Amino acid sequence: MSRPYLHAPPDYPTQPELAVAALIRMLTRFPVVGHACMTEPIEHHLAIVAADARLPQAIRDAAAAAAQDGHAATKAGALSS
């Protein structure tokens, strides 16, 4: 089954809510898919959402806090390895 939408670039510049939707989807898939392939895209989308002034401040703050938590967890894991 062809899914051409998987190859189309997201329209975040005109629809910033798509970044939030993608982030929610990735976070809900994380337990199923696993850590290695999802970490980078999640971190990238957290940064996009946190930096987009068009989004509500509460959403931006939550994304920024989640990004900090993720960085701290990654650093702690790297130090304990």
Describe the structure.
The chain contains three helices and no strands. The mean pLDDT is 81. By secondary structure, the chain is mainly alpha-helical. α1 (17-33) packs antiparallel against α2 and α2 runs antiparallel to α3. The chain is 72% helix and 0% strand.
Computed Rg: 14 Å
* Main sheet specs: none
What is the structural class? mainly alpha
Q: What is the 3D shape?
A: globular
| Helical coverage, percent range | over 70%
Proportion of residues in extended strands:
under 5%
**Which whole number gives the mean pLDDT?**
81
How are helices and strands ordered from N to C?
A: HHH
| Count of helix runs | 3
According to DSSP, the number of beta strands is 0
Q: List low-pLDDT spans.
A: none
Q: Termini, distance in Å?
A: 42 Å
Give the topology.
Blueprint: H1 17-33, H2 35-51, H3 57-80
Entry summary:
Helices cover 72% and strands 0% of the residues. It is an all-alpha fold. The model has no long low-confidence stretch (mean pLDDT 81).
List key phrases describing it.
81 residues; 72% helix; mainly alpha; globular
